[in-house]
Structures are given as C-alpha cells and as structure tokens.
Amino acid sequence: xxxxxxxxxxxxxxxxxxxxxxLRMLLVEPAAGACSVDAIYSFGDSIADTGNLLREGPVGFFxxxxxxxxxxxLRKPTGRCSDGLLIIDYFAxxxxxxxxSPYMDKDADFASGVNFAVAGATAxxxxxxxxxxxxxxxxxxxxxxxxEWFRSHLNATCASQEDCAKKLAGALFLVGEIGGNDYxxxxxxxxxxxxxxxxxxxxxxxxxxxxxxxxxxLGATQIIIPGNFPIGCSPSYLSLFSVSGTGDxxxxxxxxxxxxxxxxxxxxxxxxxxxxxxANTDVTIIYADYYGAFxxxxxxxxxxxxxxxSLLQACCGAGGGYNxxxxxxxxxxxxxxxxxxxxxVSWDGIHLTQQAYRAIALSLLMEGxxxxxxxxxxxWSC
Length: 382
Hints:
One of its GO terms (molecular function) is hydrolase activity, acting on ester bonds. Belongs to the 'GDSL' lipolytic enzyme family. This protein is of the alpha/beta class and 382 residues long. The chain has a domain at 36-229 and 258-291 and 351-380: 3-Layer(aba) Sandwich (Rossmann fold). 42% of the residues lie in helices and 8% in strands. A 6-stranded mixed beta sheet has the order 2-1-3-4-5-8, sandwiched between helices. Strands 6-7 form a two-stranded antiparallel sheet. The chain is globular and about 60 Å long. The two termini are 32 Å apart.
C-alpha cells in the first residue's frame, strides 16, 4: 500500500525537473554506452503503428492519417496517428536505436527491428467479433496476421532456427497495446453494453498471451506487454457517452464506468502475465501500466506543460465540448487544429499528441509505471 501511495504521490518540482533532465539525456542526447537491446519487434494497433496502415491503404475512419495535419510536428505525415512521435519511438531512441520501420515498408532497413503494429488492429480475428455482431473496418489487421508477418520475416532473414533464437535473444518485444479496438468497435457501434463487452476480455487476454508464448518459444527473452489506456478520459468516449446528471464523471471529468472497464481488462492482463512469468522464469516479462502513466500525466499536467483547461479536449477536431465528432475526424473538411499541439494531451480525440506520448514514455522508463522496475532499468541501462 505504501509503495502504491508513493508511486501516485504528486512529485515536487525539483524531482520532476530532475526526471525531465534525465529524459532529455535518454531521448535526445546519444547514449554513452552500449545497450542490452539491439532490436525491437512490435505488435499492436494505432498506439504503435509507424506506417503499416498507410502502406496498406487507409480507408474510412483512418483515411486522413496519410496527410496533414497528421505528422505536422515531424513536418510530414508518416502514418503515425499523432502529430509526431509515439511511445515506441521514444523507447527506440532511449535504446540508441533508429526508429523502428513498419513491416510494410519493403525498402526499409530492419537492422533495428520491425514494427508489425497496424492502426485499427484487433486482438481477435474478424470471424470471432462478427459472431457477436461487432464489425471491423475493411483494412483492419488482427494480431494473428501480424504474427504471420513476423514468421514470414524470420523465414526470410534467419539462416536457421538457432540463428533466429540467437537474433531474438537480444531483442525487445512489444506485445501490445492491443485489444482496445476490439472494445472500441463494439462500443462505438452502439451494439454492446459494458457488461456485454466484458465477455470478450478473456478471449482478448488469451490471444495476447498466445502471441507472447509463441515469441518466447522462438527465442524472445525480453517482452513488454502494455495495458489499456483509461478510455473514459478519451474525448471520443466522453463525446459519445457522457450524459449529464448520471453521476458517471469522476473528479478529473472522466467516465467512471468506462475507466472501470479498462481497469478490468488490465487486471485480467496482469494476472495472465503473472502466470506467464511463473512458467518462464528465465524470460523478462514487463507490464507497462499505460493506464497509470496517463492518469499521472493528467494529475501533473500543468507542471508538464499541458493546458489544464483543455486536458480532455482534442487538439484536432470539429468543435463541441470535447472537440470531437465521430463523423468529422481530424483531417477531414470542417476540422481545425489547435495552435500548439505540445500543450495538448489528446491529438484527435482517440490518439495522443507527441508531447503526451513523450511524457508517458518518461513515466514508463523513469517513474515506476512499468514493472518490475529493476528489469526496466536493466534494459535501458545504456
């Protein structure tokens, strides 16, 4: 209890300043020593996609990610669902690696690993979701397909099974964040209640664990499995499901019921990770607490440089209380971009800004929101 209280306690300004200086050393200045990780392999959705969907041909909801204002902080659209960089980019920079190229970029140099994550991806296959009436976008790539891509990549780049195992032993695997879209599609289509969507959680968790088990069998020794963000703080959920007078908003202005759902997923995921650790004592398996890191950002927003009066408003949107309209997603005619994305947490009502992802990367690497913390420090010891 004391450790948990300490973790969520509000840091003093000098402490936070020290952490920010450390982050600058990690994420901006070249690392002095060699890192224990020489490549990153990533599975997931739009939280980690660095250009796969863009090359697949984004349609429908994601059609605008290949054009401005997406990527405006980087001065070009890259297929990232943000104005700039993502958490995976900061992980790579802190390991002194080049940014991890998307698998669909056939001209890329994959020396620093491969990113198989695809915006809109689900943990569950299309057929499983359709059985419950949940529709997936045409371009959606489930986790099973990403795993097939990974196997194909290994077959094309490894001389033997032993060669693959040696190669993967020095790599860091990100299995997720994934599962958020399985729930988003059900909620956004208005066909599934919170209680009904809970029936999908065990299937989503099992799928994530099955991928983790397979990469371990292939030779992975270092794995990060992130939890889900507090969806009740997302402008998209707030715009769609916030009803005055219901008492569902907490002190931060977030939807308690949907955040409780995200916590339910995360609790089930952590229990499964504990079991995976017991069965693989020689493998480092880290839980990345995206939920806690995001809440920490909200609670210390002003110190971190974010506008406190717009924490739950999208930077790019079409107006309304949360600057989000489902039929006018960022980049479509009728939407506008805030003057300074670096002062906002939410980019388009669903995804975060570069500055928010940077702050979350800080919390995961330096402030104990990825556990076990000693394993995190060992990986990022360069």
